[in-house]
């Protein structure tokens, strides 16, 4: 069977491999709206939109048509050495129009990791060009997720992505994770927590010397770390401190971008304006691999001047500005606009978040949290002390398996159950998601 061949052949990403050999894969065979079906025909609501990414659902024919049409016309061309193609030009124009007005330039990659690696290299290149080669360090956060390649994986602040990979491999300082429930101290309220995090940021800058720090990178709302909304005032403070110290601010919008939080981009939800943005996932609803770095004219100018001086900006990928991927992105963004899917996130936020909060009294749920159409339940062994389980991840894995049985796919991040349904969900879909989640929780021992 397919499962046997899979077990015999494939190294699965982010998987406990020996366990996978025992249990085998869940082979997903087809999609329909917010639902997917496995190879035995069993139906699941895709409560994580794939990997936080399929905004328009799993059966949008317009995206298939856009890809087919572009493949017939020009299936591939590159953008090295001044070459260009229409869909990638049109998409750049669109992204610049959609993002905050200070962002005026676009660089394409195929994945969020490559986009964040690109940001590291762009910023290093820029600071070399500006005659300040010592300004190279990055600031990031514990539990942040920025990808998995050597530079982006270094920015990521999750031990499982560092351990035994010899990461971090670039100069980066990870600051305290801005999650009050886990990192707030005894007797501290949320405002005091925010003040402590900002004081820490200032202290780290003083200790390292601002002249050695290039940029601060963060997700507006940390997602892969467990869906962790920031405390009030956090981002305004981070922005103020970065500006005061000539440190670039990078908003990694790979999950928050394109309406996940009800605003076009996550930075708008939390009131800050980045110098650079990373976009991916919902940009094509993941029907094609694509990511983009959108950045300011000042950064562009420094890079462009240097490329003339040394002859080239020696960075880029075979698939940078891929015509099929960018054509699919344009169609996908048109669908999001025409159907007001960002407005859908605004309209359904209260119902979705209240549904999650309805489990707050459950004996295993320590915290129910989220924003827009993303949320999580954190399972704990003791609600009062917030004590995690002895064996981290076992309850999460168990819940995930029961969820499958109940026809709901979510993501267990340790013992945190993350949900991020496609932006096309309806009110009755959300009721069904919450019902299936409730059944799952009730079956946990
Ligand atoms: N940045 C964020 C915020 C992400 O959530 C992810 C992936 O989940 C990435 C970057 C990396 O993207 P990719 O998996 O496409 O390399």
Automatic annotation (TrEMBL):
Q: What keywords are assigned to this protein?
A: Aminotransferase, Pyridoxal phosphate, Transferase
Q: Which cofactor does it need?
A: pyridoxal 5'-phosphate
Domain of life of the native organism: Bacteria
Asked whether the UniProt record includes Transferase among its keywords, one would answer yes
Does the keyword section mention Ribosomal protein? no
CDD domains from the entry? Answer: OAT_like
State the Gene Ontology BP annotations.
biotin biosynthetic process; gamma-aminobutyric acid metabolic process
User: What PANTHER family does this protein's entry cite?
Assistant: ADENOSYLMETHIONINE-8-AMINO-7-OXONONANOATE AMINOTRANSFERASE
Q: Which family does it belong to?
A: Belongs to the class-III pyridoxal-phosphate-dependent aminotransferase family.
The molecule here is called Aspartate aminotransferase family protein
Protein source organism: Neorhizobium lilium
Its organism's taxonomic lineage begins at:
Bacteria, Pseudomonadati, Pseudomonadota, Alphaproteobacteria, Hyphomicrobiales
């Amino acid at each position: 069977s397919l499962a046997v061949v899979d077990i015999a052949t494939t190294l699965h990403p982010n998987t406990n491999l020996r366990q996978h050999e025992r249990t085998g894969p869940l082979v997903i065979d087809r999609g329909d709206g917010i639902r997917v079906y496995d190879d035995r025909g069993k139906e699941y609501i895709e409560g994580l939109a794939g990997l936080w990414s399929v905004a328009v659902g799993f059966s949008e024919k317009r995206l298939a048509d856009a890809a087919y049409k572009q493949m017939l016309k020009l299936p591939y061309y590159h953008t090295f050495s001044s070459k260009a193609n229409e869909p990638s030009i049109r998409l750049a124009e669109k992204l610049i129009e959609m993002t905050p007005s200070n962002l005026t330039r676009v660089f394409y990659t195929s994945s969020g990791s490559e986009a964040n690696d690109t940001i590291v290299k762009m910023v290093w290149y820029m600071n070399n060009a500006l005659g300040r080669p010592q300004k190279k360090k990055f600031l990031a956060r514990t539990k942040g997720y920025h990808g998995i390649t050597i530079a982006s994986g270094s920015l990521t602040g999750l031990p499982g992505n560092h351990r035994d990979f010899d990461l971090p491999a670039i100069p980066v300082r990870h600051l305290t994770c801005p999650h009050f429930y886990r990192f707030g101290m005894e007797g501290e309220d949320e405002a005091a927590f925010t003040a402590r995090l900002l004081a820490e940021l200032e202290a780290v800058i003083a200790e390292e010397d601002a002249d050695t720090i290039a940029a601060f990178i963060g997700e507006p709302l940390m997602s892969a770390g467990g869906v962790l909304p920031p405390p009030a005032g956090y981002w305004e403070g981070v922005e103020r401190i970065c500006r005061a110290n000539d440190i670039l601010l990078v908003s990694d919008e790979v999950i928050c971008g394109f309406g996940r939080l009800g605003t076009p981009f996550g930075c708008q939800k939390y009131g800050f304006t980045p110098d650079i943005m990373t976009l991916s996932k919902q940009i094509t609803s993941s029907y094609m691999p694509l990511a983009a770095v959108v950045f300011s004219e000042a950064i562009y100018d420094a890079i462009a001047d240097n490329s003339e001086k040394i002859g080239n900006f020696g960075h880029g990928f075979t698939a940078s500005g891929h015509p099929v991927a960018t054509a699919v992105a344009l169609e996908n963004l048109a669908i999001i606009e025409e159907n007001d899917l960002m407005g859908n996130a605004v309209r359904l936020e209260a119902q979705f978040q209240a549904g999650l909060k309805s489990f707050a009294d459950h004996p295993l749920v320590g915290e129910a949290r989220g924003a827009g159409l993303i949320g999580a339940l954190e399972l704990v062994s003791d609600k009062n002390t917030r004590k995690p389980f002895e064996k981290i991840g076992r309850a999460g894995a168990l819940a995930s398996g029961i969820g499958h049985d109940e026809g709901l796919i979510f993501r267990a991040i340790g013992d945190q159950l993350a949900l991020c349904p496609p932006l096309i969900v309806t009110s009755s879909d959300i009721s069904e998601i919450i019902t299936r989640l409730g059944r799952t929780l009730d079956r946990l021992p």
